[in-house]
Request: fold
Amino acid sequence: MERRTLDDGRDVARTTPDVARTTPDAAGNEVGNGGGRSTTTPRRVDERAGRSGHIGGLDGLRALAVVAVLVYHLSPALLPGGYLGVDVFFVVSGFLITTLLLRERDRSGRVALGRFWLRRARRLLPALAVVVVVSVALGLLVGKDLLVGIGRQTLGALTFSNNWLEIAAGSSYFARTSPQLFVNFWSLAVEEQFYLVWPFLFLGLMALPIRRSTRAWVAAAGALASALAMAVLFTPGTDATRVYYGTDTHAFGLLLGVCLAFAWDGGHGMNLSRPRWRRRRVPISLGALVLLVGAMAVIASDGAFAYRGGIFIACVITAVLILTLLEGASPVQRVLDSRPVAWVGERSYGIYLWHWPALLVADALLPTAVESPGWWMARILALVVAVVVSALSYRWVELPIRRHGFRATGRVVLEALRGGARGLTTPRAVAGVAATVLVLAVIGIVTAPEKSAVQATIERNQSLVTGTVPTGRAPASPDATPGPGTPAPSTTASAAAPGATAPASAAPSAAPSATPSASTGAPTTSSPAPDGGPPLAYPAGEETIAIGDSLVVTSADGLRDRFPGLAFDAQSNRQWPDGAAAVEARLAAGTMPRAVILHFGTNAGVPDPELVRKVLDKLGPDRMVVLVNLYGASPFVPEANKVFAELAQGRRNVIVADWNKAIAGRVDLLQPDQIHPGILGAHLYADTIKQAFRDLAVRTGGAVPTGWEIAKDY
Reply:
């Protein structure tokens, strides 16, 4: 007997034609000759498939799904739509679970819900528990904010409520600024909630005197309603976590699988033996596979299309691909059933669980510049380790419990610990290590910090950067005139920074090697601007304002030190629409000085470049504007930085401060999230901006104070 694994790890026993018994699969699902206690079955599919009940190619489809997710999490730029692998899992799961329920009801006239849920527990809980315990223990040993919010995450993981708990907590799946150990467990929560509710709905549908095609249409209508809910609730330019995590808005993949299962009904529904379908099945299969891979390559998670039809289309393609794998062999099926591909598919559940914690631990242990050779090496090694560990877990944890159950496996473990020679034996050593890891995990949960280092810095600095007013004179501009009935923003006094630092040689614009001191001495004589426009002199702190998001907040100390008297208008989690509103309010109130620092997009990039263009237009040509670009592993960073560079071109008063290049050479100055600067990193951040202002002044023929320099203090 050959055992094969379907959907999220469920095994199906493939029996030879002369075997007339059934065998529980690894999740406890009795499938074989139609499944269950009967020894014969009337279904056409079982005769055509060698009376096996096995559906070829689904292991390989699961392998494709998990590899796509791994590549996406390795670096989203490699496969922008790799996250769609989760939706492939959803469609496969909805199809197979419903098929198993149909088989059980067909053979016995009922569905044993207790046994159904026990099989799910035997399949999912062992690997999940091991991942949670080991990951939390590692997080305790490594530190670096890995355990922030771990109590909530652990509760969500073990109760399969992760998605809703994280939505309530305001977490983000897409922002890389606050990594969570179990961020990938949201999909398990959606599936388990489906497993809990769907059997009741299934029994209700089966009790109605309607045709199987009608049941399929009901499921299709539910899928369409879920997809429409995602499209309607999604707001472009904002974080999509609510619609992505929500069971209500992301159930369409599961329901499309249900629709296919009802329509096919184990071969009792759609007749897939017709010659016309047989002739077209192979090209349709190849086309569906190409389209699915293409969707993974182009449907990025930061675009509106993904949530307004893109993910749904990928699920439809997956359902069509599954349809072509039913009742007969094909070239695509043979590739998906090849041993290396099937091996990955069989272990895809464990690989999916382990890969994200492994990546976070690697990032914490080996912080290196994003996309540097060391960064690639560390993350690829982490994924290799995840595959190896998941294979070991599959062999020694998951399979024994699937085959023998919790009690029988527990008895075997106890016998191994009691038996053998006195003293330390291998089972006892393993048990000792397991107990130690469990204790560390408990300590990690109990002692986990409530806030990350970044959050603590933001809260400490927020009062310094909220609505301060520059004391310097704003340039004469129509934009500076308050509009009728426009209230001025709330203000607080800005504090002056400490004294100057020791002088040193000036550093390159993109990556200053030292910190600027306060400007002293008389200004140099300005020379005519190369382009004939008015010269823009290097600004004093009192003539400057920093408007931005959490990067400005966490860098407040460095900015105040380098620009005494600098005004702030910054707040965490701001996006470019918020920045545009802040700029308009200050222009209307007449509180916009002649030098402006803009830094937005840390969490979402630049969804609408035209909005940034409008902000620059409103600031006018007489203000000095520094756009600070982005650093991080988020997929939107390269495109956002390209937008900044393009918008600065042709504008004599606008320059880009290359924070990306500056911090890439000093990642040791970043906080544990590898996004926000620490105390000394804030000095480097301010240096990068100071250098940009100097370069802009020189470029336009403006004066630079005598003695201007950057002093190295980090």
User: Anything to note?
Assistant: The CA atoms of residues 104 and 112 lie 8 Å apart. The chain has a mean pLDDT of 85. The first strand starts at residue 2 and ends at 6. The first helix runs from residue 44 to 48.
